[in-house]
Amino acid sequence: MTDFDTQPTVLIAEDDDTFRDRLDRAMTKRGFDVRAVASVADAERAIAGDAPDYAVIDLRLGDGSGLDIVEALRLRRPDARALILTGYGDTPTAVAAVKLGAVDYLAKPAAADEIIAALEAPDGQRPAPPEDPILPDDARRQHIEHVFQEVGENVSQAARLLNMHRRTLQRNLKRYNADRPVTD
């Protein structure tokens, strides 16, 4: 997809600042030239300027649908490989994403290695399923704990970011800590 002497480019369109920054660092560490944006409008401008080799696109952005970005990328650069990354997955949206040209549709949280495997999988071939798949409850727990840690364990701020009542977050955190085995 790219010359051997240049880094592959990837557009990350994600409105969750924490997740976008984490993914940006992970992809940069793995040899990608990253362009990270937070909106459909910014993504479309980035594609119009110099369309990337790859794109990781959140389905729901503040100013519209990530599907619009997939379509814009396909029109500007048909050989580019895009995937939809979302916490709001459903079958009709996954089908629409693939019809528009996305190579895959992954649920958050997804690891950088999983994202790269999906982006670089040969056409018509899906990457192997994870050896140790994460259960939905565990994924939710990890996301909540990650957001809580990212805001310096500030319950009020984490609850706002998670769109959750403060007391509900406190109960979840208490339950998660009670579920952990005690080790010496």
Task: Please give a structural write-up.
The chain is α/β, with parallel strands linked by helices and 184 residues long. 49% of the residues lie in helices and 17% in strands. It folds into two domains: 9-120, 3-Layer(aba) Sandwich (Rossmann fold); 136-179, Arc Repressor Mutant, subunit A (Orthogonal Bundle). It is built from eight helices and seven strands. The strands form two sheets. A five-stranded parallel β-sheet has the order 2-1-3-6-7, sandwiched between helices. Strand 6, helix 4 and strand 7 (102-107) form a beta-alpha-beta unit.
Low-confidence stretches: none
Strand order of the largest sheet: 2-1-3-6-7
The helix fraction, in percent, is 40-55%
Mean pLDDT: 83
What structural keywords apply?
184 residues, alpha/beta, Arc Repressor Mutant, subunit A, 7 strands, globular, phosphoprotein, WalR-like
Question: Could you provide a short overview of the structure?
Answer:
By secondary structure, this protein is an alpha/beta fold.
Task: Give the arrangement of secondary structure elements.
Layout: E1 9-13, H1 17-29, E2 33-37, H2 40-49, E3 54-58, E4 60-61, E5 64-65, H3 66-76, E6 81-86, H4 91-100, E7 102-107, H5 112-120, H6 136-150, H7 155-162, H8 166-179
Parallel strand pairs: 1-2, 1-3, 3-6, 6-7
Antiparallel strand pairs: 4-5
Helix pairs in contact: 2-3, 6-7, 7-8
